[in-house]
Amino acid sequence: MRIFIAGFGTVGQGLAEVLDSREIFFKKRYGDNVKIVGVMDSKTYVTDPEGLAPMDLVSRKAETKRVGSRTYTDALEVLDSVDYDILVEVSPTNYETGGQGLKNIVHALECGKDVITTNKGPLAIKFGDLIALARRNRCKLKFEGSVGGAMPIINLCHDNLVGEKIQSIRGILNGTCNYILSKMDSGQPFEQALKEAQQLGYAEADPTGDVGGYDSACKVVILANSVFGRNVTFSDVSITGITGITEEAIALAKSRNMVVRLIGEVTDTKLEVAPRLVPRGHPLAVTGTLNAAQILSDLAGPITITGRGAGRLETASAILSDLISVLDDREE
């Protein structure tokens, strides 16, 4: 029950906090606690085979902006420097190449380690290869937190709806865009709403990944491959972001008792991210940073779920769910 955390930004620190708060839970359920034996951020790392104190890691990062005192040039060498059972890969997403996160995941799976990730880039461009690699090495690859943060869409489809024929998934998969569009509903111009989202930490300094629709597109790919069994990549998605939405378009929607929302849609044949008109009062007409998805299946019909799509503890809760699933499988 030894984990290595690759990436110690918002989500990595949130996971450390959650593991600290769930110590009694783990001991009751498994007879032992989960130990963090290694952590690395973009420049530094720290390891201890006996376990690292989660809140000490969080405090050090807050005070020094670094998780450890040792620097590195090769992340894979750091992974090899301590024995661990599960890699939690939460480093920054690279939509084009998968970045270091892809290398970390591949290396861990090749070494026979289970992997839990919220990193969308590797899954969006190499999903089939990663799943095949995990199967060959009899490893678990879990990624609930990669789509919708605390909104449990992947596990819902895989577990609770396992006997259903899922016909489509439509949803709001990016909380930043939803926040901006919600503000535009109330009369704010796009640029002002974006600036406010950046000030609140919802949007990055470079918001292209969010407002350009690329983040949502990655999530559409993950849903298509994991739920529909397709073999697609980021480049297969038709993408239109929200940068072209004008105040006039918002006003026109409002006059028709509708709102504009960035909707990702997946079927057996469709992969699309684009602004859509949604009637007020519809389950997908959520406001603020919420995510929402409507799953249409042949037996249950439409099922709608909502949840916070991002956040320190919200995304960590999805990782916790995956971690418990991996540990339960090991107990059987």
Structure description:
The protein is of the alpha/beta class and 332 residues long. It folds into 2 domains: 2-147 and 312-331, Rossmann fold, CATH 3.40.50.720; 154-308, Dihydrodipicolinate Reductase, domain 2 (2-Layer Sandwich). 42% of the residues lie in helices and 23% in strands. It has helices spanning 10-21, 23-30, 54-64, 75-79, 99-110, 120-136, 153-160, 175-185, 190-199, 208-211, 214-227, 247-255, 312-331; strands at residues 2-6, 35-40, 44-52, 70-71, 86-89, 114-117, 141-142, 166-172, 238-239, 258-266, 271-279, 290-297, 301-308. The strands form 2 sheets. Strands 4-3-2-1-5-6-7 form a 7-stranded mixed beta sheet, with helices on both faces. Helix 1 crosses helix 13 and helix 6 (120-136) packs parallel to helix 11 (214-227). It is globular and about 65 Å long. The two termini are 15 Å apart. The mean pLDDT is 95.
Beta-sheet strand percentage?
Answer: 15-25%
Q: Give the oligomer, counting copies of the same chain as homo and different chains as hetero.
A: single chain
> Roughly what is the average pLDDT, rounded to an integer?
95
Q: How many strands appear in the DSSP assignment?
A: 13
Query: Which word captures the global form?
Result: globular
- What is the CATH superfamily label of the largest domain? NAD(P)-binding Rossmann-like Domain
Q: How many separate domains make up the residues? A: 2
Strand order in space, largest sheet:
4-3-2-1-5-6-7
Distance between the termini: 15 Å
Main sheet summary: 7 strands, mixed
Output the helix-strand order: EHHEEHEHEHEHEHEHHHHEHEEEEH
Unreliable residue stretches: none
**Name of the top-level CATH class of the largest domain:** Alpha Beta
Give the proportion of residues in helices: 40-55%
Q: Based on the coordinates given, report the CATH architecture of the largest domain.
A: 3-Layer(aba) Sandwich
Radius of gyration: 20 Å
